[in-house]
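[SOLVED] Need 3D model of a two-part complex

Original post:
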Amino acid sequence: MLRDIIFVTLLIIIALALSYLTYLGGLGDLPPQDIRLIARSYLNLTYNQGVNWLWAASPEAVTAIVWDYRGLDTLFETVVFYGAILAALTVFRGVSKLPDRIVSVGLSVVVKRTMAIVTLAILTVAASTALHGHLTPGGGFQGGAIASVAPLLLIVVFGKQLFVEKKVSYNKLLTLRNASLGLLSLSTVALLIYGLATNEIGYIFQNQAKALSTLSYPSHMLDVPLGGTLFFLNVFEFLAVTSGFTLVFTLLLSSEEVILKEFEGEEYGY
Amino acid sequence: MMDYVDLVFLMMGITAVISVSFTFLAVKTKDLMHAVIFSSVQSIAYALVYFLLMAPDIVLVYVAVSVGIYPLILILVVKRVGRFEVTA
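Solution:
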């Protein structure tokens, strides 16, 4: 007991010491007073109509950096994430075909009604986060992560057969995921393809018109900044993340006997 | 006299201390269900620290993953492996 108290006290002293060092300026001034050159150019250019051959048409600098200025970085991050989902789906490919053995009645009526309201709220917040990704903090991945809490809670509260009853099948979710991934990749090369077709100059990950290329995604829609490709990438990323997470959850929440069948015979090698 | 920045740093210090204590509890407890809950409280403290460090994009995804998805998945795991840690 005394040992525990000493240990916790030590941890708290370390946390306090680190906070105090940060307060004294161990990491430099917070918030930083001098902005680095690259950050300054991002901030100056993101929504600067005066240099519209370098702008991203998005008031949200973070999204502009993530999907436009450093789009290739984000592309590879996304590839890692979908690779992980793909691996899970491949390992459990047998499970997805089998009907589940569990027939649960779910939780009580009170929980079910509350859950119905909460689901609506979760999906609204998620959609708002994803669709306003180019205006306010947030974006496709954030919105998708928020939205995928809803199916997980729905399965727990209403039972696994809810998705079967509502005809949200594995294959439909897989199709949604593949379609949104396809559209995601298409919107990065759309202007390049269009440029090749019409014999004009276009680039991969092109958003707005550049000095050598007049091709451009729309920068505004009904007087609201659209951010060109940022909006489309956010929406497709939102759909792909939501459906990908939901697929993995439905597999992980299958009954134990169905899942264990996939791992049968491991003592004799796979 | 405390100004705005001092207040932010004070809140960050308090939140850091809270997160440290709850991490300790999560490691120490033998009841895995309690461990999951302690761990999510620690995550909430982290989310607040991210917010105070002016990273709202991280907060949005961190709250969803650490308070929604991660405890739910862990609770399902705990349901399968048993609630109490058995000491040898």
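Edit: The helical segments of chain B are 4-28, 32-52, 56-81.
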